[in-house]
Amino acid sequence: MDNTKFLPDDFELVGDKQNINIDEVLPSRPMWQDILGRFKENKGAVIGVILIIIITLLAIIVPMVSKWNYAEMNTSIANRVPSGEHWFGTDYLGRDLWVRTWQGTRYSLIIAVVAVIIDIVVGMTYGLVSGYFGGMVDAIMQRIQEIINSIPTLVVLIILLTVMKPSLKTVIIALIFTEWIPMSRITRAQVLKVKEEEYVLAARTLGAGNFFILFKEILPNIFGQLIIMSMMTIPNAIFYEAYLAFIGLGLTKPLASLGTLINDGFRLFQVYPHAMLIPAAVMAILMLSFNLFGDGLRDALDPTMKEG
Amino acid sequence: MDKSMLKYIGKRILISIVTLFVILSILFLMTRLLPGTPFNSEKMSPEQMEVVKAKYGLDKPVIVQFGNYLKNMVKGDFGLSYVLYKDQGVADIVMPRAKISFIYGIAATALGTIVGMLLGIIAALKRNTIWDTIATIISVLGVSIPSFVFALLLVIILGVKLPVLPTMYLENDPIVSSIIPVVALSMSVIANVARFTRTEMISVLASDYMTLALAKGLDKKTLIFRHALRNALIPVITVIGPILVNLMTGTMVVESICNVPGLGQILIDSIHSNDYNIIMACSFLYAFMYIAMMLIIDVSYGLIDPRIRLGKGE
Amino acid sequence: MAEREKVLEIRDLSISFRTEGAKVNAIRGVDLDLYRGETIAIVGESGSGKSVTTKAIMGILAKNGTIDSGTINYTWTDPDGSKHTKDIVKMSEKEIQSEIRGRKIAMVFQDPLTSLNPTMTIGKQVMEPMMYHYGTSKEEAYKKAVELLSEVGITDPEARMKNYPHQLSGGMRQRVVIAIALSCDPYLLICDEPTTALDVTIQAKILELIQDLQKKKDLSVIYITHDLGVVAKVADYVNVMYAGKIIEKGTIDEIFYDPRHPYTWGLLSAMPDLDTDDDELYTIPGSPPNLTKKVQGDAFAPRNAYALNIDLRLEPPMFDVPGSSSHKVASWLMDPRAPKVEMPASLRNRIQKMIKEGVAK
Known about the structure:
The complex is a heterotrimer. By secondary structure, chain A is mainly alpha-helical. Chain A has helices at about 30-40, 45-65, 95-135, 135-150, 155-165, 170-195, 200-205, 210-245, 260-265, 275-300. Chain B is mostly helical. Chain B has a domain at about 105-275: Orthogonal Bundle (MetI-like fold). Chain B contains 13 helices and no strands. The mean pLDDT of chain B is about 85. Chain C is of the alpha/beta class. Chain C folds into two domains: about 5-235, P-loop containing nucleotide triphosphate hydrolases (Rossmann fold, 3-Layer(aba) Sandwich), CATH 3.40.50; about 240-360, P-loop containing nucleotide triphosphate hydrolases (Rossmann fold), CATH 3.40.50. An eight-stranded mixed beta sheet of chain C has the order 6-7-8-3-9-10-12-11, sandwiched between helices. A four-stranded antiparallel beta sheet of chain C has the order 2-1-4-5, covered by helices on one side. In chain C, helix 3 crosses helix 4, helix 3 (about 120-135) packs parallel to helix 6 (about 170-180) and helix 6 packs parallel to helix 7 (about 200-215). The mean pLDDT of chain C is about 85. Chains A and B meet through helix 5, helix 8 and helix 10 of A and helix 1, helix 5, helix 6, helix 7 and helix 10 of B. Chain C: It comes from Sharpea porci.
């Protein structure tokens, strides 16, 4: 106190020179910038995105520019280990695995995209309708879903196997049967949560129709969750394709997916493990990247869900 | 256990039976109504075919066949194998294999759950340290790498490169033979359980009742063992169901990679050769095990968590 | 007043938290005194640092919080009559845990619905502290727990011992939390918003219960609250906190009938009462300061209609209010050189009415 220097006007009221009604607002950024910022901070997610981009580019470009053809057989060079000539070696029919692997990745990626579409078309629609209309509709739809869900995936696949020939169509049908349930559950839960919010009630009292409310009010508000969910189905779908290929339900020859490549390599894998390990590694990296990407997206879109 | 719990269990068992019946009917109809018979590969004249069909009762109307099938099934008779093990009783072929698959599944679930819980707890307690990072990496890898890729890697490394474990199933040494397939199957369980446990544990540690327990003046060990663990681990039971689904799908391929005489290999073979009764029996057993496990999980969750067991008071 | 026995003496306590990229100075030089058998209230908006102060007393600051300076001297009398004083800031975590927490200082939390362990019976939770700290046998602990439960007004305590928290109502659960707090016969009870989460009808009952127990067991109590209604009912002394500092302290009568700090004026004006004739309830303008930044001058100045130029520059010291040994105010308005500023007329009327009705005890 004693050594404080006082200024002449110290003890005058500030009065109107300051506006006391201003709330101090912390500097804020647009939401997408926030999301992007959080996403970029997540090293795993960034690595995931980079890997996805690299793999996708390789899958598109390699089969176009390589001097080998994915279906070209030459048994005189069968089962070669990776070399300067054949970067990933050759398979039991002498086909170049570098080309076949990226060709196969193409199909795996196509299947991933199809899975997401199924998720949205079947799963999301089911969840939206069930959650939004509620009551009887919801009760019936939930019972149906429960019964389908209590049939193990494996048995669904067996049923399909007994009925269908192996083809891309079969893989897609298998996905339709099994992949939509988690998505429809999340959608329904989200719809139930959002449906009672003030802004939805406001829209309703203003006379908005069901269609309008669903697409203009509810969907935009739960979209983040749904994107996260559909990102999570991608690794699952890639796995299922490989799995189906392994039990003989995959693509028909000479087409190749990562799953059929793994299946082909399996015959001789104790002697020539490269033919199996390389496509398996590519698949694992692809699934890993999508998982990392999905995790990063979840944390970025909804930081409250982040445990770390 | 009170009345409502018993009622709930009764209802669940009833639904389970209905589901199993639905599965059986679909399978039966699918196999019988489709073109092609188990005997396609055997060159037979139409007359011979009729004789063979009559022998197995395949000449009767489908509905009668189904009735007979159900009647026999209740008695534990799953019919005869048409192709793979000609004319042998399916029950005798399938049951020993089901036992092996079942034991492997249980072992992988148990191993995966225990290791996963440990990892998750360590990660949560040592949050944002190297331990947490290691646990996170393990769980991301475990979720991303399919179980059959793990099985292959283990076979190549432990079975071929440094041959310390058999790559085949050895009759006389079932425990050593089981290491590779069980470990491979448990990887995804470890990953999923670890992830879930970590999240649960972190939210428990941040809960108000942990603050109260801390304010009681308890030491760290008591806090974690008496108050946190139970609350964090009970919910883990709920994720074991979905994990089992993944695991079961995985067994089919992992068994075939590790040459395990379980249901997996014979199921794949029977599908390729249209051996109906084996397909039916295997699918039924898979479905039965799955549904039974789900039931056990749901009921035990109800029994362990007092909030569900005792319902709302007052 | 008889010889007052000091239980707790906090001097110049400063606490900061490390958050992402910033240091939050949550507590900036707090002084606090508490005497045996008396009740003090710490009042303030959320984020003012009232909870952090008590967490520091209990030694349960969050991991990213550190005590930068200050002392928390805690004095107790052992059964043999000898007096001990220890500085909690200097004690090790192990010492605080085994000697202080739950044993000499106990706490009642805000939300009874979440503060009991959902998978442990009420009985176990009440018995746990005494068995842990004093090695009480199970039978004895059971007996004492049943006694405690009936003491906190729980009917049929024997049956309740076997219940789980979810089987009890919110009010019942808060009684259980109080029983747990009292289970080790503490000297000091900290109540962190003990009634905020409860129904209005139960609030008064819980406050009365705490008061009864306080008298019976000669406890010292610290209330943390933002509710001046609670303060008026229970406190002997009031500390008004703003932005990590105590800006006005005094007896309950001094704070309610003769408030000097413009922030206290604001708080009192904002207190709802049944016959407020204004159309609108008064609110304090603006929002609390961002404590990641260094506070320049008086932290309240930007929201203060009575701010002086010096407030923007220098932090005010604690001024004694003339004629009182207990009433202190941190405002430059108390400086003799400051212009004479009166509290708003509407508040004056309100206080007149309160005095007539005797709102404070």
